[in-house]
Automatic annotation (TrEMBL):
The keyword Acyltransferase applies. InterPro entries: Plipid/glycerol_acylTrfase (IPR002123). PANTHER family: 1-ACYL-SN-GLYCEROL-3-PHOSPHATE ACYLTRANSFERASE. It holds the Pfam family Acyltransferase. The keyword Thylakoid does not apply. It comes from the Bacteria. This is Lysophospholipid acyltransferase family protein. Keywords: Acyltransferase, Transferase.
Length: 233
């Protein structure tokens, strides 16, 4: 109930005023049945504007930090993210990643739409980064279609590090479903998983027009800052 209350009453009208969103290719999302929405990831607001513009409910995997806060703020975050369909995952290791993929499979087996970000984290600079193979593993295991989604200008409305949104024109582009039935029985093959992932990332690049960078976004974010030199100073 809260999901639709936020979408149509509490948050949706405000988001529409701030982002003046429009959607292209909505007909590519099936009216029923499971599918993975594979989206680029520019800002936190991606997880708000995509559900706002799609009729069906979408479930997302969300980092567990959103559910572990303390005090009144932490309690509100836990309630809010649970109410809007976010599923907490621990991203700190291989076992945690396996748990996240299991959670995604469970939603798909129930016939739901699963929103996933193959880059694994938000883009630090607006470019499209190398995809991780977890999404491909889920797609191959379940046989569900993968629908590419390009979120455009959410990073202008919600730049990294900001809390208060800024007015911008949001566009959501939905691409044609990708069918990987030709790889049936090949799940678990890391070369096939990489090929599927790269095909998804290529479609995202074509759909959204982002510059592609063949490294993981997380590795760039975690790279230590270079010490300044007298010349640089």
């Amino acid at each position: 109930m809260w999901y639709y209350t936020f979408k149509f009453v509490l948050l949706g009208p405000i988001l529409r005023v701030l982002g003046r969103p429009r959607i292209e290719g909505l007909e590519n999302i099936p009216d029923r049945g499971p599918a993975i929405l594979a989206s680029n990831h520019l800002a936190v607001m991606d997880s708000f504007y995509l559900p706002l513009m799609v009729r069906r409910r979408i479930y997302f995997l969300a980092k567990s930090e959103y559910f572990t806060g303390t005090g009144a703020k932490g309690a509100f975050q836990r309630w809010f993210f649970s109410a809007v369909g976010q599923i907490p995952i621990d991203r700190s290791g291989a076992e945690a990643a396996a748990g996240a993929l299991t959670a995604a499979r469970r939603q798909l087996e129930a016939g739901h739409l699963m929103g996933m970000y193959p880059e694994g984290t938000r883009s630090p600079d607006g470019r499209l980064y190398k995809g991780k193979t977890g999404l491909a593993r889920v797609a191959l295991d379940t046989g569900v279609p993968v629908i590419p989604v390009a979120m455009i200008n959410t990073d202008k409305l919600n730049p990294p590090g900001t809390v208060i949104p800024r007015p911008a024109r949001i566009v959501v582009k939905i691409g044609k479903p990708l069918d990987f039935a030709r790889y049936e029985g090949m799940q678990g093959n890391r070369f096939i998983e990489r090929a599927v992932t790269d095909e998804i990332m290529y479609e995202l690049m074509q759909l959204g027009g982002q510059q592609y960078v063949d490294i993981y976004a997380a590795s760039l974010k975690n790279k230590p800052a270079e010490p300044s030199t007298p010349a640089a100073a």
